[in-house]
Amino acid sequence: MNAPALLPTNELVLYDALDHIMRTARASSTQTRRLRWIASRAHVALQGLPYVASEHDQPKMVSEAVLQAKNHQLRLANARLRNALAQVAGGATGYSDRDTELAQIAQAALDAEQEARA
């Protein structure tokens, strides 16, 4: 990459900014993988060395495929729950008093889900 030529004052400002980012990331009370990566990346830049990704502990990246898989699993679980509620709403226990109560609870849950979708 062709970076623009920096004036000496800009170099000092950028150096100070990177140093501050590095110190802040290291001083965090909760050390996460991402914060350690930020500190490491800033440290290398301050030394004037090129960034080599394999030399740094990379932060965890969630891919689109992982998100889609999780979304699919949630949809399946939701469908199973809806089926169970529908069965209960139809009276599946064999005890008439309990079936009526469960049917009312299940129907209320199904109605609430329909309202949430609307």
Automatic annotation (TrEMBL):
Write down the superkingdom of origin: Bacteria
Protein's UniProt name: Uncharacterized protein
